[in-house]
Amino acid sequence: MSLQRAAKSIRSIPAEGVLDLQQVNISYSGKAAVKNVSFAIAKHNVTSIIGPSGCGKSTLLRSLNRMNDFIPEVTTEGKITFDGQDLYGQEVDSVEVRRRIGMVFQKPNPFPKSIYKNIAWGPGINGYEGSIDELVERSLKRAALWDEVKDRLHESALSLSGGQQQRLCIARALAMEPDILLMDEPCSALDPISTAHIEDLIFELKSRYTIVIVTHNMQQAARISDYTSFMEMGELIEFGVTDQIFTRPRQKRTEEYVTGRFG
Fold first, then answer.
1. Considering only CA atoms, which of 179, 247, 176, 178 is closest in space to residue 218?
2. How far, in Å, CA of 53 to CA of 201, rounded?
3. pLDDT grade, residue 230 (50/70/90)?
């Protein structure tokens, strides 16, 4: 699978891992934010990244689809591979990386356009050759939003509730037909009912996509993720199967964090 826009061939993704992080270091103007992080992200699973504020979770997440490229003072070292291909290689198209590895942000950020155009705009400017109508419907259905908006597709996306807007943003990301979906605290601005909808959606989506989520919510990480990585002060303290991390952590600092005795 090439990340160069001109390439047409697609090779199968290895079953053991889609993304592989090897000794990743990220700094802002020389100040380390992520230090020597290594772990692999499994296909069709949900991987949560947890840890206290300022520990480097979101910085690490953004490195997985090169969103940090938009911050001039950020330096990334080490290696991040997608299907064995270096995401930061000289021949890699960063735009294609962000198409293949989509992202949903902390606060819903729909375009000030219609619901329909929110979904159709990205594929349209990227030369999508299929039926846009079918793509819009399929993306909204996968985001569990179609039944709620199918009769109001040409109304402003800003008229939707917060939870609906976040599902619309998920649908917008899915319309680009990514392999991986990154989510940066997607429920932090939502009420409990909307949060439950998003969590149910994440569970359903992992059959089609690989999902990596940053969350401050320990209960949420325990509910929805298959694997969990715990970070502190830019370092990866522990990574493993979620049940093991929350019930039988190997590191004392992990146990203190997940049991609320962190400090």
1. 247
2. 26
3. very high
Euclidean distance between the first and the last CA atom of the chain, given in angstroms as a whole number: 44
Pairing relationship of beta strands 31-41 and 19-28 according to DSSP bridges: antiparallel
- Residues 176, 130: Cα–Cα separation, whole Å: 12
Question: Which residue from 163, 75, 164 is spatially nearest to 115, judged by alpha carbons?
Answer: 164
Question: Where do we find the tokens 């969103």?
Answer: 67
The string of pLDDT tens digits covering residues 174-191 is 999 999 999 999 999 899
CA-CA distance, 199 to 48, in Å (whole number)? 12
Q: Is the dihedral of CA 203, 206, 208, 210 positive or negative?
A: positive
Residue-wise over 178-207: b if at least 16 C-beta within 10 A, else e?
A: bbbbbbbbbbebbeeebbebbbebbeebbe
Going along the chain from its start, the domains and CATH numbers come out as 19-258 (3.40.50.300)
